[in-house]
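Usage

Read records sequentially. Each one opens with the input sequence:
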Amino acid sequence: MTRTDELKEVRDEVWALKESPLYAYRMAEGNYPVLGEGNHDANIMFVGEAPGRNEAKTGRPFCGAAGKLLDELLAGIGIPRAEVYITNIVKDRPPENRDPFPDEIALYGPYLDRQIAIIQPKVLAALGRFSASYIFDLLHIPETRPISKTHGEVFDGTTSYGPVKFVPLYHPAAAIYNQQLKETLKKDFEVLKQFK
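and closes with the structure output:
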C-alpha cells in the first residue's frame, strides 16, 4: 500500500468513528472531520489541536485566520505550504471552539500516531500546548516546562521509524491579536528552515 492508501484508511476510520463524543455534534452541525493535508513525503509535519469552525465546514486544516498566519509564517522561512503536512490531534471540532478534553485526545491520538508513522517526517512541529504535551509524551521526552518556556526549542525524539526532531510552537491563533506573540512565532519558525 502507498502512503496515500494508508492515509485514506485512517480517513475512512475517522469518518466512521461514531463512538467519538464529538460525532453527534459533527452530524448535527453538518461538519466534516479534518484529517490533514499536504505532502505525504513531508520532512515537516505540523500538529495542531482540533479544527475550528472554518476547518470543520471545509474539512481542511488551518484554513481560517490561524491558517493564513501559518501560511505567512511558512512563506517567511521559504517553505511552501504544499511541502509540509498539516493535521491536528483531535479530528472533529469541539463545540464552541473549546479546548479538547483528555478523553477526546486519547480517542483521536492513535490516528495521529498512525499518520506520523505513515508520513515519517524528520520534524514534528506542535502548534499549541495540547499538541506539544501530546508529542512530548509520544516521543518519551521528559519535559515538564510549559510551552511558554519550550517554544522554539529543538528536542530529539525517537519513533517507530527512527529519530525525529520535535519543535513546540505557539498556536497561530494565539498570535492573531497579539503582535508580540506573532513576532515570537516568526523567530521560532526560523529553526525550521534547517529541515526543509
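Summary fields computed downstream for this record:
- The chain has a mean pLDDT of 95.
- The two ends are 26 Å apart (CA to CA).
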